[in-house]
């Protein structure tokens, strides 16, 4: 069987990282929601340093930041795809976008709850 892909596994992985980095930069440059989430991530990171949160709290905080930003990125991709497929307003496209936004909302609410569990006792104590 001929080798259709002549580039090595390592070269392909490096290209994948490059494409992912490009996507991240597009998100940061073009999406206000990601910019806001980066600001919030910075604030809770500073709070984590200030309150000297535990290793477990750091792990959970990092996972929550990554989850919210990842879901937001996927939602943005869905929105771009939907707009590409059907540029005019369409109720089904609107529903698809609403569902994607709902997923971001769920992740954001979970992150807020986790932040409350981590920081409220430290602020009040």
TrEMBL record:
Keywords: ATP-binding, Cell membrane, Kinase, Lipid biosynthesis, Lipid metabolism, Magnesium, Membrane, Metal-binding, Nucleotide-binding, Phospholipid biosynthesis, Phospholipid metabolism, Transferase, Transmembrane, Transmembrane helix. Coiled coil: none annotated. Its main location: membrane. InterPro entries: DAGK, DAGK_sf, UDPK. ATP binds at residues 13, 19, 31, 79, 88-90, 97-98. It is found in: Cell membrane. The active site is at 72 (proton acceptor). Mn(2+), Zn(2+), Cd(2+) and Co(2+) support activity to lesser extents. GO terms for molecular function: ATP binding; kinase activity; metal ion binding. Substrate binds at residues 13, 72. One of its GO terms (biological process) is phospholipid biosynthetic process. The chain crosses the membrane at residues 34-53, 99-120. It is a multi-pass membrane protein. Its cofactor is Mg(2+). A divalent metal cation binds at residues 31, 79. GO terms for cellular component: plasma membrane. Belongs to the bacterial diacylglycerol kinase family. PANTHER family: DIACYLGLYCEROL KINASE. This is Diacylglycerol kinase (ATP).
